[in-house]
Every structure is written in C-alpha cells, then in structure tokens.
Amino acid sequence: MTLAEPILAAWLLIACGFVSLAVTGLALAQRPWQVLLQDQGLQHRWLAACVAVILMWQLRAQSVDWLTLHLMLTALLTLIFKAPLALITNLLANLSLVVLGKVAWPLLGVNVLITGVVPIAVVVLVWRIVDRRLPDNLMLFIFLCGFFGAALSALGTGLAGLGLVMLGAIDPEAVFLAREYMLFLPLLMPSEAFITGMLLSILAIYHPEWVATFSSHRYIDTK
C-alpha cells in the first residue's frame, strides 16, 4: 500500500516526515554499511534485493487516484538483512517512485512510515518473541516469522494507512474510500505471507547463511 497523492493535511505530512527521518537516523546510527563493506557477497545480495524490490513496486494496482496496492516485501528484507538495511532498501524503493513521478514527493515520509517503519517494527517484534521465548524449531521460525509475521506486517501497514487518512484527510470522500479499502486488506495479507514464507523457507534451507536473523546452528545443526 502506498499513498500517491497528498490527501493528508500539511501538519500530518510534516509529522510523518519527522518520524520517518528520526527512525532512519536511528537505523543509520547502527552503521549498517560496515557489515556491507566487510562482506562482498552481502553487497551483491543487498544490491540485487534493492533492484528486485524497486522493480516489484512498479507492479501496482491503482484502486483510486491517491492509493496504490502492491507487494511490499519489507518483512522478507527485515528477516534477511535485519532492520537497518531493510529500512534503507525501503527508502530507496520509495525514492524510486518519487523520481519516476508516480508518487508526490511530500508523501515520501508518509510512505516510508507505513511501508517501512511499521512493518519492520511488527516483524522485529515477532522475531524477538520467536528468538527468545519459543523453542529452537525450524518450522516455528519459518511459519511464525515468515508467514505469520509477513501477514501481520501487511495488516499493520493497512491499519496505519487507514489511521492516517481518518486522522488528517483533507478530502472527506477519502475516509469513505479508505474504509472500503479495508475490505480488500484480507486479500493482500495472504499474498504477502505466501511470497515471504516461501522465499524464507528456500533461503533458510539452502542458504541459511544469507538470512541474518536465522541461526543454522540453533535450528538445524543441533537437531
């Protein structure tokens, strides 16, 4: 889900911009580029993921003029690269939409918030619970982090977008359309969950070293 036209009040656009900027600053404070500089293979995988996500985001369903629906893949990026690099990738994808003229630039902060910050926070929370509270089981990791976590992240994005529209939409009709959009949200959640869970399963089994949140020693070697 991405907002394409500035239907929100100016104060809300500014507030979302500040929140996105602050979270991005925290992500950069973790110095994710240090890991990239030390691992050439990771550089190639991350750049390939950036290109893939940017291209995937071009395949969008335009439900109304100001709202587009598309796969985010943010949950998968978070599980593979962890939160800082996932957020940077999301920022680059959102910037590509602005550069191509498909999204108005004042909405950059809003879209980073609802397609990046919110789903990343949801996936990190699910992963923390699985990592620290549940037994070391491969199927639990894949289903809870991959399938369930991705579905929850899509739900979080939809609810965040709806909340922003209801909070500060300058067009009364937008509130009605946003509520109608919620009827389609259950259709988006399974697709996001299936793609994320399927790709995470393949990587965890064949290339576990590529998944930063996955420990092959805990989930495979000790079983």
UniProtKB/TrEMBL annotation:
GO BP of this protein: transition metal ion transport
UniProt KW keywords: Cell membrane, Membrane, Transmembrane, Transmembrane helix, Transport
Residue ranges the record marks as coiled coil: none
Cellular compartments annotated: Cell membrane
Membrane-topology annotation of the record: Multi-pass membrane protein
A GO CC annotation given for this chain: plasma membrane
Entry keyword annotation includes Cell membrane: yes
Segments traversing the membrane: 7-30, 42-59, 71-93, 105-127, 139-170, 182-206
The protein's name in its UniProt record: Energy-coupling factor ABC transporter permease
